[in-house]
Amino acid sequence: MATLAILEFPDPRLRKQAAPVTQFDTALGTLIDNMFETMYAAQGIGLAATQVDVHKRLLVIDVSENKDSPQVFINPSFEVIEEELSEYDEGCLSVPGFYETVSRPRKIKVKAMDRDGQPFELIAEGILSTCIQHEIDHLDGKLFVDYLSNLKRQRIRSKLEKEQRKSA
Ligand code: NI
After folding, report:
1. In what order do the strands lie in the sheet with 71-90?
2. Which of 46, 53, 70 is nearest to 4 (CA)?
3. SS3 state at 76
4. Cα of 119 to ligand 1 centre, how many Å?
5. What are the catalytic residues?
6. Is the peptide bond before 105 cis (omega within 30 degrees of 0)?
7. Do 91 and 105 meet the contact criterion of CB atoms below 8 Å apart?
8. What is the DSSP-derived secondary structure letter of residue 23?
9. Distance from CA of residue 72 to its chain's centroid?
10. Pick from 62, 48, 60, 61: nearest CA to 16
11. Which residue from 72, 76, 74, 77 is spatially nearest to 36, judged by alpha carbons?
12. Distance (Å) from CA 59 to ligand 1 centroid
């Protein structure tokens, strides 16, 4: 396994629209394993393929405390089953060091495929619901900073650009 480089805001590759996964082969399995390794190494709870510059509709998530409940979502979609919103201080491995409150539907029904291409459904609420919605946004080129005011987003952008220049 290997860890992959994570793209950081405002990298334009984070704005690409991801394409559906059609091949459930060993290359996909390797990508999934490497994405988990990358997510755990970075102490994240979710990672979308977009963030490692692979523009396929694939997410890995583990919201468990002991980091022992890996979940894979391929070609995921969801419908809101409760309009009520939950607020979380969201962070993102592509926006390192920043946490901001975002509201999203509290309870959703998710449809996706597992690593073998088998379809499944689940009801998600709380942090899992938020995490799945945040990660699906990545596949559509959207980031949690898009929910903030322009001013806040610009501040985050200039701070990150400054750090990226330093480490370049
Ligand atoms: Ni993210």
Report:
1. 46-48, 58-61, 71-90, 100-113, 119-125
2. 53
3. strand
4. 24
5. 135
6. no
7. no
8. -
9. 11
10. 48
11. 72
12. 10
